């Protein structure tokens, strides 16, 4: 099929109905049928979401307004019988009432859409240029990263670019700043305890830091941050020229929580290069009709999770001590995931679709996050490169090499090509590293690696945590306590305590809340036997459990007394971003 002319229009005449009205005018059709499809997933979020389920009132019209016959071919595809027409106008509505960065949200307050959740693509034409007209609700303004012509139409080089351009429509606040002569815009929806001036200044600082990391080789003309403030929100989704970030509206005054917001900003902004351009070979153009698999998410998301905190540090927005505390927390979290012995990070990457994005009570027992383990692998590689080269090389050089060779040329890489770049920069083989830590599940040599930076890694049980250990996560429900999950190889697992059991009594006493359990554990010793009454599947059961010893849940990183000047220099260069 030759290129068609494809013009999208999206309107929201009654936003309180949560329905976007979408119209697609297609010209230059030659066949008897025309297939249109809704994506089943959105790039950057590895879950089949079936966006087609929110589509209604589909119609297809000839230029004179005559309805054309159409049929639903599968869960995502609509087939229009053109009846010889060369131009067809398709209209449908999309129910948009899921407020996440990956979906769409239309209410009397605002409109937000992530392209994949509202726009059908013409099958076989995802690389054809398209135009978009947005009719905002009365009095609302539009923020979108696409270029606009004099007639108000937006233009995208392809469906991919259209789908990759989220929009915020409403009465949101707008802020602007420039970095290296490029305009950056922040569309801020919602209110809480934010300080806009500080937030804008800090985001600018992060943009400057990440851009400088890539030697100010900025791949976009213009960049848009859409930031949503809402109750309990947290999430971000990367795009080539934009990002949508959702955070809790009250996250801006507490220092630790605000730093987390800044890490999220740095994370999504780093993706502008790393993931959106420095990317696996099968990312972009995307196949929107099914899962796209890669064993490289530990590089794509893990490296990003490593650098996000480091950028906030290097931007001077947090102290070296606070950064090391954060890293300690990450290490402690990792060491408390039994699944790290069960599944490699390469497999966890590949299976994101059914594992990380579909968490259940067994997730931590059976898998390890490619974000978390990937970030610690990035740490190990970074330290190794710095130590082996006596400070002349680092993971930053690997990123730059990936950018020069692949990202800037908009070429993806295979897992082997990624490893080749790493080995070229490192000047040595990483075969054993990959076999043990990427494809394998060996314990990571974190203490040893950090020692090379003159840091001592200390593991302990947090002062607030009881020494006696049951090995369960608990959930409070209306005056009762339920077992949310049972940790592999814990006392609870060994004594037949199940997830979903209702924990009724501890040594014969009613368990009213989780604090009660914590208090009883605090009064117990490892080795004590407790009698638990539980309700399982409607029956009362009793279990005797021998309590264990709580494993370390806190990791601290402190400069070692005997660190050499060379180690101190490496530490300083790492924390400040010098190489
Ligand atoms: Zn990410």
From TrEMBL:
Annotated PDZ domain residues: 456-538
Pfam families: PDZ_2, Peptidase_M61, Peptidase_M61_N
Record-linked Gene3D superfamilies: 2.30.42.10, 2.60.40.3650, Neutral Protease Domain 2
Database matches in InterPro entries: PDZ (IPR001478), PDZ_sf (IPR036034), Peptidase_M4/M1_CTD_sf (IPR027268), Peptidase_M61 (IPR024191), Peptidase_M61_catalytic (IPR007963), Peptidase_M61_N (IPR040756)
Superkingdom as given in the UniProt entry: Bacteria
SUPFAM superfamilies: Metalloproteases ('zincins'), catalytic domain, PDZ domain-like
Designated name of the protein: PDZ domain-containing protein
Organism: Ardenticatena maritima
Taxonomic placement: Bacteria, Bacillati, Chloroflexota, Ardenticatenia, Ardenticatenales
């Amino acid at each position: 099929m030759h290129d068609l002319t494809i013009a999208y229009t999206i309107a929201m005449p009654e936003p309180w109905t949560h329905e976007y009205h979408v119209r697609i005018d297609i010209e230059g059709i030659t066949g008897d049928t025309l297939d249109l499809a809704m994506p089943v997933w959105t790039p950057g979020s590895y879950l089949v979401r079936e966006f087609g389920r929110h589509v209604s009132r589909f119609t297809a019209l000839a230029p004179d307004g005559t309805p054309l016959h159409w049929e639903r071919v599968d869960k995502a595809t609509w087939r229009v019988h053109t009846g010889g027409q060369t131009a067809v106008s398709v209209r449908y509505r999309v129910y948009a009432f899921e407020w996440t960065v990956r979906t769409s949200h239309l209410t009397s307050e605002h409109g937000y859409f992530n392209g994949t959740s509202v726009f059908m693509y013409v099958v076989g034409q995802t690389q054809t240029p398209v135009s978009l007209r947005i009719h905002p609700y009365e009095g609302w303004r539009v923020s979108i990263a696409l270029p606009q012509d004099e007639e108000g139409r937006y233009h995208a080089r392809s469906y991919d670019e259209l789908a990759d351009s989220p929009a915020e429509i409403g009465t949101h606040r707008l802020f602007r700043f420039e970095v290296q002569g490029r305009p950056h815009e922040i569309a801020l929806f919602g209110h809480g305890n934010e300080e806009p001036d500080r937030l804008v200044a800090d985001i600018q600082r992060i943009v400057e830091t990440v851009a400088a990391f890539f030697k100010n080789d900025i791949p976009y003309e213009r960049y848009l941050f859409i930031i949503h403030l809402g109750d309990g929100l947290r999430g971000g989704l990367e795009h080539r020229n934009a990002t949508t970030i959702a955070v809790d509206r009250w996250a801006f005054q507490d220092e630790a929580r605000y730093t987390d917001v800044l890490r999220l900003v740095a994370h999504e902004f780093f993706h502008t290069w790393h993931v959106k351009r420095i990317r696996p070979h099968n990312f972009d153009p995307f196949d929107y009709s099914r899962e796209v698999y890669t064993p490289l998410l530990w590089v794509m998301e893990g490296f990003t999770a490593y650098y996000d905190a480091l950028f906030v540090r290097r931007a001077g927005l947090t102290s070296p001590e606070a950064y090391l505390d954060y890293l300690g927390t990450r290490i402690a979290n990792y060491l408390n995931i039994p699944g790290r012995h069960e599944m490699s990070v390469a497999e966890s990457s590949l299976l994101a679709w059914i594992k990380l994005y579909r968490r259940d009570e067994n997730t931590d027992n059976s898998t390890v996050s490619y974000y978390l383990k990937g970030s610690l692998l990035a740490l190990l590689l970074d330290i190794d490169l710095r130590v082996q080269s006596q400070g002349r090389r680092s993971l930053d050089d690997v990123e730059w090499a990936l950018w020069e060779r692949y990202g800037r040329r908009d070429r993806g890489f295979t897992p082997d090509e990624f490893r080749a770049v790493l080995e070229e920069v490192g000047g040595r083989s990483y075969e054993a590293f990959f076999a043990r830590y990427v494809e394998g599940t060996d314990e990571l040599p974190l203490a040893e690696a950090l020692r090379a930076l003159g840091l001592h890694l200390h593991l302990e049980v947090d002062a607030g945590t009881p020494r006696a250990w049951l090995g369960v996560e608990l959930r409070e429900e209306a005056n009762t306590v339920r077992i949310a999950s049972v940790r592999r190889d814990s006392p609870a697992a060994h004594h037949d305590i199940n997830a979903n059991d209702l924990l009724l009594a501890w040594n014969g006493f009613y368990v009213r809340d989780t604090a009660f359990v914590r208090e009883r554990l605090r009064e117990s010793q490892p080795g004590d036997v407790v009698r638990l009454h539980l309700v399982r599947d409607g029956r009362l059961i009793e279990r005797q459990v021998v309590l264990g010893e709580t494993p370390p849940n806190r990791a601290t990183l402190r400069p070692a007394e005997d660190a050499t000047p060379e180690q101190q220099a490496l530490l300083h260069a790492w924390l400040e971003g010098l190489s």
